[in-house]
């Protein structure tokens, strides 16, 4: 700790104070002096506050990202499960009655969701704060949509395979 000395404006005695100290009592004449914060200290405080804000933004962004990933997993699970169920329904009742029609409807719904789902999910990408590290940012590129569509198709395909295996 750097000790700074000032001259008492009352008695001209030398008063020592530490950084961060806001008031000091003169040991010679007992007058109390207010110490103005020095610019370096103010700058340091501001930098600390800015760092804390950035930290909070980072935590918030990572939470958003986590919930975004959860939504993606739920979408893929639903696509997987619905494909499996629609396979069951069409196999259980293949005479072209209600259940069969319902199964086919599900197939169409899942197929549509393969393309609609990723677009919906992509629109939910949390905006990254300006000072977030590059590797943590979620890239909202065309590649992301392609990747999401591919995962959706894979989920439907796996659902179909699971349906075939379980139905036997
Ligand atoms: Zn004094």
Describe this structure in words.
- With 168 residues, this protein is mainly alpha-helical.
- It has helices at residues 39-92, 98-123, 142-167, and strands spanning 4-7, 14-17, 23-25, 32-34.
- The strands form two sheets. It has a two-stranded antiparallel sheet. A two-stranded antiparallel ribbon has the order 3-4.
- Helix 1 (39-92) runs antiparallel to helix 2 (98-123).
- The termini are far apart.
- The protein binds zinc ion (ZN).
- Zinc ion (ZN) is lined by residues 8, 10-11, 13, 26, 28-29, 31.
Structural topology:
Elements: E1 4-7, E2 14-17, E3 23-25, E4 32-34, H1 39-92, H2 98-123, H3 142-167
Antiparallel strand pairs: 1-2, 3-4
Helix pairs in contact: 1-2, 1-3, 2-3
Zinc ion binds at residues 8, 10-11, 13, 26, 28-29, 31.
Short description:
The chain is mostly helical. The protein contains 3 helices and 4 strands, in the order ββββααα.
How does the major sheet shape up? Answer: 2 strands, antiparallel
Give the terminus-to-terminus CA distance: 78 Å
Structural class: mainly alpha
Number of beta strands: 4
Oligomeric organization of the protein chains: single chain
Q: What is the succession of H and E elements? A: EEEEHHH
Beta-strand share of residues? 5-15%
Uncertain ranges: none
Count of individual domains: 2
Treating each run of at least 4 consecutive H or I residues as one helix, how many helices?
A: 3
How do the strands of the widest beta sheet line up side by side?
Answer: 1-2
Principal-axis shape equals rod-shaped
- Computed over alpha carbons, the radius of gyration is 33 Å
The helix content, as a percent range, equals 55-70%
Mean pLDDT: 85
Named once each, the bound ligands are: zinc ion
């Amino acid at each position: 700790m750097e000790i700074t000395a000032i001259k008492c404006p009352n008695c001209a005695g030398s008063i020592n104070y530490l950084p961060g100290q806001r008031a000091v009592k003169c040991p010679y004449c007992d007058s109390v002096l207010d110490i103005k914060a020095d610019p370096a200290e103010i700058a340091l405080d501001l930098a600390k506050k800015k760092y804390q804000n950035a930290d909070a933004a980072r935590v918030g962004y990572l939470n958003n990202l986590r919930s975004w990933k959860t939504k993606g997993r739920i979408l893929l699970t639903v696509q997987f499960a619905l494909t499996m169920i629609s396979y069951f329904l069409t196999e259980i009742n293949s005479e072209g009655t209600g259940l069969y029609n319902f199964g086919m409807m599900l197939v169409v719904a899942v197929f549509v969701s393969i393309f609609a789902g990723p677009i919906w999910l992509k629109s939910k990408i949390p905006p990254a704060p300006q000072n977030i590290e590059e590797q943590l940012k979620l890239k909202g590129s065309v590649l992301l949509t392609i990747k999401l569509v591919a995962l959706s198709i894979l989920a439907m395909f796996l659902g179909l395979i699971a349906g075939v295996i379980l139905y036997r």
